[in-house]
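User: quick one, fold this
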Amino acid sequence: MIETLQAISDYGVGIVIIFLFIWDYVSNKKKLTENQEMIKSTLKTVEETTMTISNCLIEMQQTNLNTAKSLELLQKQMESTDKKVDKLLEGRNLKWTIKYMTF
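Assistant:
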């Protein structure tokens, strides 16, 4: 019994320090695992968001290309219409000139 008490008094502080070290290690290991899981979850969410944004940008690019093509076609149509109107006006002016030139 005295030997046990002597051993505890000699090694008690060391045993307590070792116990606290092991407890701290296990506790930190749990926290690290929880943090890693949270980081993985956050990373997955970021990847999903990135994919969504990427898809939106691709759709916007296609829409812009379609809009550009539509504007080109509209410009060609307007130029064609302007030419037709110009021809009609020239014909009308020519008729008016001929009509009023004769006295």
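User: anything notable?
Assistant: The chain has a mean pLDDT of 87.
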